[in-house]
Amino acid sequence: MASNEPAQMWSTASLPEAGPGGWNPTEESVAAVRGKHRLPKQRTISRGSTVLGVAAVAAMGAGGVATAQGKASLPISVPDMSSVASAGLDTLVAGEDDTAAAPVAAPLATTASSDAGEALRTRILEQAAQQQNAADSAERAAAEEAAAEKAAKEAAEKKVREDAAKKAAEEEARKKAAEEAAKKAEAERLAKLAASFTKPTSNYTLTAGYGQAGSMWSADHTGQDFAAPSGTPVVAVHGGEITSAGWAGSYGYRIILTLPDGTEIWYCHLSSMTKTSGTVSTGETIGRVGSTGNSTGPHLHLEVRPGGGSPVAPVQWLRDHGVTV
Fold this sequence. Notes:
Elements: H1 41-68, H2 81-93, H3 102-196, E1 205-206, E2 224-227, E3 233-235, E4 240-247, E5 253-258, E6 264-273, E7 278-280, E8 285-289, E9 299-305, H4 314-320
Antiparallel strand pairs: 1-2, 2-9, 3-8, 4-5, 4-7, 5-6, 6-8, 6-9
């Protein structure tokens, strides 16, 4: 430890002359000359403060550099007074120039500058890591957004397909229901017609059909033949009015029954006519099977002429009105 007492100085003027054998100092010859060349105490304190001030300014300057970089201030280490004294404090007290403090402060400034550079490097690396993390986060967010958009698009397309399939199924069900309703209505209509329409005769066999060619008629067959025993009753297929009854040449005895809608039913080759005029009801007997006119055997030749015009197929017409022959 350095002494608190002021350093003593010696005057060269008081030293004895060296003899032939050289100077041999003694306790009395080297005694300090009190009161001469002694520095004031406050100068010692002033120079010591100068050394400490230079070191503190260097350390604070280094800390200021780190603070200016946006980092927390680095800790300042104050040098040990004993090391400062051993490094040359006595020399400073003895009268060295103030610039002698520089060798003590320089290492501290260099260390502080190195620490500030390391702190700046660390800060740069942290910023780079933050930027990389931000880029990774942005990439993940973009990927998640793209996945969400894709899922939403697929869901929308799926909904469109489901809606289309549902609509098609509903349309198919509607069509099927309409067809079933139409069939039901047709069945009801035929049932009603069956109640009001009937077969023209019984115990028959279908022979020559509509449109069939043959040598017995000049053109294609214009009606349907029902072969049956002679005298078999012939009835009105539907309620109507007898508008004609009598001989008709090649048709033999013929009765014409006109229905409410204007359709004419021709009954030909009759052996007899039991009703020749007036209104008749469905199933009422109007004549009997025969073989009059151009005929090769007993049968009923039946023709159907809508509106009194050209003939149509009797079997199909009867079926359309709920009668199967």
